[in-house]
Design a protein that fits this description.
Two copies of one chain form a homodimer. The first copy, chain A, is an alpha+beta fold. Among the domains of chain A are: 12-94, Winged helix-like DNA-binding domain superfamily/Winged helix DNA-binding domain (Arc Repressor Mutant, subunit A), CATH 1.10.10; 138-168, no CATH class. Chain A is built from eight helices and six strands. The structure holds a DNA duplex.
Chain lengths: 169, 169
DNA sequence: CTAATGAGTTGCATAATAGAACTCAAGATG
DNA sequence: CATCTTGAGTTCTATTATGCAACTCATTAG
């Protein structure tokens, strides 16, 4: 059976997972960010099957995260460059780094760190609430219907029971 | 063939993807965060096959992101609660929201928004560099070997050519 | 006594993966 | 000129994983 698609899901997370909810796509983006943008470079660093790499690259180009660009003609050779959307996705991937470091590389023994290309300053990704500037803690949060929410009342009630009872009593 | 595992990969992103690099696991965590923590609730909201849900839940429990807890005996019934690690992973997932909203829900028409459980204030996830407080831009970044980096010199040179030439000339 | 609930199993057809080998064009080498 | 090498993919096959539907099973509710 074909993998389920979330393109019509009423959830930003779900829709993003159509292209990022997979193990190879994020890693391909990572390599492109690291400057390994050609087929054989990607294959070498990721140790991915060539047929899979072919397909994933097509998907990423199709989804608008990568651009397939010829870096020479005669013989035609290509590289895969991050688009704006691709760079935006990379930022999300970088948000995985502190999580991975905390849970899979204890004692600060993480293998890679990020630096500013110009200044060389250490860069540490962190996820905050931009309204308060404070680090996000999922325990404090509650989901509410946003401006584009559309659903039958029964579903609405079922999903936002707390919210619903608060605003109607 | 069995899906490739990254548990020994020298990369925080790759190791995190062993459990988060998939479409169902993140969505299951999302539902648990939203308070839908029981088998049938998860099945209803995610519209996931029951056999797949069973397996994924076992994986998430095994990976330490969820706890399987009996909420009643006679008949024994369970719910799946987020652990500390699970909550930490949720924060990463929430970082997908602005990406999804930007690229899949134009014009601010996103369906869900987050609010502080106590104050009701709007919460907007954003990924910043905690050293400067500025929004992260992947274009400005360069990866460098971190404290736990281990690799043969040839590989080191190949991956960090820019870094390597800078520090040795 | 029958129905409903919650939480899974079991069986099956179809896709996706991993792995390895093969293709193909254009330069480079001897 | 014949062969080698590079870059970028195909093709083939054996396993897995996914999605779907139907089935189980214990316990309580009516």
């Amino acid at each position: 059976m074909e993998r389920k698609k979330f393109e019509n899901s009423p959830c930003s997370i779900a829709r993003s997972l159509d292209v990022l909810g997979d193990w190879w796509n994020p890693l391909i983006l990572r390599e492109c960010l690291y400057g390994n943008t050609r087929f054989d470079e990607l294959q070498f660093w990721l140790d991915i099957s060539r047929n899979i790499l072919t397909r994933r690259l097509a998907v990423l180009v199709d989804a608008g995260l990568l651009d397939k660009v010829a870096y020479q003609t005669r013989p035609k050779r290509f590289e895969y460059l991050l688009t704006d959307k691709g760079h935006d996705a990379c930022v999300v991937l970088l948000a995985l780094m502190p999580f991975g470091e905390r849970w899979y590389f204890k004692n600060g023994q993480h293998p890679i760190e990020l630096r500013d290309r110009k200044t060389g300053a250490l860069v540490t990704p962190e996820i905050i609430d931009s309204n308060t500037g404070k680090r996000l803690d999922s325990r404090d949060l509650i989901p509410c219907p946003g401006p584009g929410f559309r659903a039958p009342k029964a579903i609405m009630k079922r999903r936002f029971s707390e919210f619903y009872s608060e605003t109607t009593k």
